[in-house]
Amino acid sequence: MSSTYGKIIKIATFGESHGVGIGVVLEGCPAGIALDTDFIQYELDRRKPGQSRITTQRREADEFEVLSGVFEGKTTGTPIALLIRNQDQRSKDYSHIATQFRPSHADYTYQAKYGLRDYRGGGRSSARETAARVAAGAVAKMILQHAGISVNAYVSQVGKLRLEKTYQEMDLAQTEENAVRCPDPEMAQRMYDYIDETRKKGDSIGGVVTCVIQGTPAGLGEPVFDKLHADLGKAMLSINAVKGFEYGSGFSGVELYGSEHNDAFYTDETGKVRTKTNNSGGILGGISNGEDIYFRVAFKPVATIMQDQDSVNEAGEAVKVQGKGRHDPCVVPRAVPIVEAMAALVIADFYMRHKATQL
Amino acid sequence: MSSTYGKIIKIATFGESHGVGIGVVLEGCPAGIALDTDFIQYELDRRKPGQSRITTQRREADEFEVLSGVFEGKTTGTPIALLIRNQDQRSKDYSHIATQFRPSHADYTYQAKYGLRDYRGGGRSSARETAARVAAGAVAKMILQHAGISVNAYVSQVGKLRLEKTYQEMDLAQTEENAVRCPDPEMAQRMYDYIDETRKKGDSIGGVVTCVIQGTPAGLGEPVFDKLHADLGKAMLSINAVKGFEYGSGFSGVELYGSEHNDAFYTDETGKVRTKTNNSGGILGGISNGEDIYFRVAFKPVATIMQDQDSVNEAGEAVKVQGKGRHDPCVVPRAVPIVEAMAALVIADFYMRHKATQL
Amino acid sequence: MSSTYGKIIKIATFGESHGVGIGVVLEGCPAGIALDTDFIQYELDRRKPGQSRITTQRREADEFEVLSGVFEGKTTGTPIALLIRNQDQRSKDYSHIATQFRPSHADYTYQAKYGLRDYRGGGRSSARETAARVAAGAVAKMILQHAGISVNAYVSQVGKLRLEKTYQEMDLAQTEENAVRCPDPEMAQRMYDYIDETRKKGDSIGGVVTCVIQGTPAGLGEPVFDKLHADLGKAMLSINAVKGFEYGSGFSGVELYGSEHNDAFYTDETGKVRTKTNNSGGILGGISNGEDIYFRVAFKPVATIMQDQDSVNEAGEAVKVQGKGRHDPCVVPRAVPIVEAMAALVIADFYMRHKATQL
Amino acid sequence: MSSTYGKIIKIATFGESHGVGIGVVLEGCPAGIALDTDFIQYELDRRKPGQSRITTQRREADEFEVLSGVFEGKTTGTPIALLIRNQDQRSKDYSHIATQFRPSHADYTYQAKYGLRDYRGGGRSSARETAARVAAGAVAKMILQHAGISVNAYVSQVGKLRLEKTYQEMDLAQTEENAVRCPDPEMAQRMYDYIDETRKKGDSIGGVVTCVIQGTPAGLGEPVFDKLHADLGKAMLSINAVKGFEYGSGFSGVELYGSEHNDAFYTDETGKVRTKTNNSGGILGGISNGEDIYFRVAFKPVATIMQDQDSVNEAGEAVKVQGKGRHDPCVVPRAVPIVEAMAALVIADFYMRHKATQL
């Protein structure tokens, strides 16, 4: 129940941080799509550890194997299984937490729920699981490409450094030009320096990823519970370390009057119904209206820090948890492809679901 | 697919704003619970229109009928169906929008998706549907009572008026003492006046509802996709007018260092593992840790305002949509029981799901 | 979980034999279908009690109310809720079984599962629930009509009286011409007499319903677990009193050699790929091949008989359960529309699901 | 949607006959179960090809790799992924059917549904997929062992050779003593000879597998749609080549009077409520009553035969499909562990689901 996502385009992920590997089974991909394995690898490379000084030093090539669902280079409509084997798993780095609970990690809650846990690197609770999502998301992007829909995310905040420019004021193609994945080069440099300083202090810092979906036709999303933004929100909140989600005007929109917030309709020169403003974030009543969909995702500071911390062990005794292991001082640069992957999966799912509602 | 929510405790709602009525089928309720129909009515009364000068003047008694699932006052384990008939449906108030799209309403997107729509009061897209959720949520609260879990929400922001006190600093029993549902009497009055002024201007304003869940044992929630906060987030984002969700430290947590944000564990005098702070909002890795769960939900200003607005009609022609119909100048006072209802449904669902993971 | 069926066209039923009524919420019906309420009533009338001497004498008009999902006579794409209120509920007829378990009824197993039960007429376990299915099935038939697909069932066996003619050898329009619903008039009369004799003895007898689905395009059904016949089978086995399901050659096919059983392909004059024989029952690998789909459903003799039977009460003491209450001496004549309803729901679901697999 | 089965204990299979391999992700397994990999291999060996002269000569060791979900030999509550790589894939044996449709295979329907297909050995439609089910079923059996529930299947019919003895009259431990998997040694020999003769003729023959589930407590199964036997039926019908399912008295029960068919309750010496007969097959109203559950599954003759057959190619032209490739002359001996696996998965799922219905 818990490792499965989606209704038509459906993924089931498996694997642990320090087990054999990480994988995903993607069901519901239409037949006849040319599977671009280079693109899947490209997306995995965007997420993989060891990309720069400000990401974790764990070394993983994150190469994947296609186990099923493809014949002569094309999807067959049957489940696509992808496997990424773990390589650089220094499990002994974790022996000190075999019986200790790291603060703000899932060690304690997994123990409480299951009575035992794979403590090595957090086991199943590790963000390493998101590699599987990124691989599946790459397939979802291929589906969306057929529909002319694009998904682009970027870092818009690190700690108190908040990018005030909107996505329309920047060239999103710049996102991949720097290690932080912020499309504003000057801000990117400030963020980089800030993260690097944080790293040197043995600490971590939070951030925000903004995501923009363009090219969505009007009509995607389902009324009531499966509103488009509700599923986007769930998908984002399911990513490790996420603490908040807002779309369109979001939390700041609560301060506006209705007369300020409402998006007036007009018909453009091509005869298409458009809105003059987009406080709605491209979604009305849970259904896309054809405008850009955009949202922000808040990530807390990574729980692993290079400092000793107060905690307890399985026996309930007070302990000092040592600051050990490899970690990211700030998760958002690597979170960008994860946010895109989950967004692509949600939109692709609704795109296919929409077909099932049309006579 | 879209009007159903939950995995074990599962609801399916139906009905439109100006049709026969609104209803819900709740499946998965354990047998043997005394169904307190007075309590269901009490919860519906908290949500119903016409409560005060600052809510819509539509008159609905919102009385319900139990259609099934109860025998000799007790739940039988079979589906509980509840029906609330509509009464004060001045449908003719809506004839002017039969072919016009109201800005920031779902008129246009329903038309785009389905090719036709029940335009009367928004039809299925109306927040009237949430009456069904509140009725179901009342049942969920009865289940949670057996588990010693309580759910309490309150208004924490209206426009720019933001309550700075935390929930621990107030008496939540005060929430029902005023029309705004803010447990701080002084702030409640300021909010009330602000909403009333907004109403007189024929405008609307947004707000925030905060919710606190207490008494949850450690272990609820499922890893990976069905994280406890991910499902809470989806449930909240599925409520009409919601634009954002954050739990624990939320968006403000991104500005903290890990060393500031991490919640240190300790063992309390009863031998229970606790955390000294609660930036985690009671959830680690998607699973409850036994601390209070708390979150904030952002509501946009109501789209209906008493002002003429630019828009288009079904033919794509520019029109002025008249400011007509009855509406709430600010939705958050009535949203409080809705937020509680959805939270109760999510927690009850995870409470029952958890049992299914234990050998 | 248990009162919901389908993936896209999805129904949730509710209600008990002697409660307020029986109902259904049908989700996923495409928008724009003219809802023929006369047809729904016609189908309900085919299932309703009191049709002839060989059906139960309970008097129920089985009139229904449309609670939602329809606007100006057309479906809107939102949930369609239908309610049938109970009328002739002589609940006191059941007081003798308040603490006794009727043999081969669900009294004991509901008690074991839930710790309490609505004993009146079997409560939720009563076949009265199937009225809701028939109403929903009528809507499914309207969807199928748009696709040129028809569903026709008939009684092919009562006790040892087995109709040897195939469906191609009879005029299925004759099915409704007699009380037994057997399209062979001579056999119908023999079956009628047999059932009536059984009734006079205070006994009951089993039977078989055969169903034929025509006009299905090739390609419906999903590989592996959701094979078209697997879902048809589950749907049929979910009907009260059903003990078996077989499609195409069924159980008798096991006696054939592959060289006898295989259906050779050919291309007909219109260029369509056809099979010369149809042992496959119109389904290959779980996917329709465009030939007629046909299957047989076995119904046990009704458990209620007008004879005293050995049993135990809730305390485990030996008792004689009296032969009381109203019942059908043979369920298959009234089961015909139920089988059709469930078949129509399954096919309509796959018809809409198929769209979601096409790019 | 189509490669996933179950609600709590949930499997997703992947893989093709002549691709990289076959695999399964099993979710919902409780934590703390010692994973007996030898037992998984034992079950796979029971299903694997090349066991005797009467099974296909394809050589597959069917060794598996545990990819996730296990730590220090115990299940962790997270998804268990198992991978079986293909070895003996003589894909060129299938080049002759690259554009031809084999009679009574799924070649044509996959082509119609997806517009392309992996023709090698049937691709995804091959019964090789059931290796994944058997591996998952072995895990399900480990769960059931904790509950004291056993699942045993055997061959009860091959062609016209039908075993008249009931399961109580035989020693089911004998089932594995012969290549046919019939617990009656004398009948087993007759069946063996009959299959071998059929093989020599280049033909195939159908059969029936009977399955018995013992030790189930009263209360498993869900009312209405997810009746225990309805899900068992769907699971069985999802197995390749299955044409029918009946439980308890099944199709033969339709010939009985209610007075003959009803199972009288009594209380045994231990105070347990029992039934004197078991025409109900251990299930009343879709819920287990504590008696043995038993059912029969009909398998058609294997579609691959060593004879030339009439068919058409993708262009619709008449062709002779050659009798080539390796195949089983009768599928039931190898189907025994598959039937057990699916039954174990269904029962384990209901066993865990039942917990979620108890307060």
UniProtKB/TrEMBL annotation, chains A, B, C, D:
It catalyses: 5-O-(1-carboxyvinyl)-3-phosphoshikimate = chorismate + phosphate. Reduced FMN (FMNH(2)). Its EC number is 4.2.3.5. GO terms for cellular component: cytosol. InterPro entries: Chorismate_synth, Chorismate_synth_AroC_sf, Chorismate_synthase_CS. PANTHER family: CHORISMATE SYNTHASE (PTHR21085:SF0). This is Chorismate synthase. It comes from Salmonirosea aquatica.
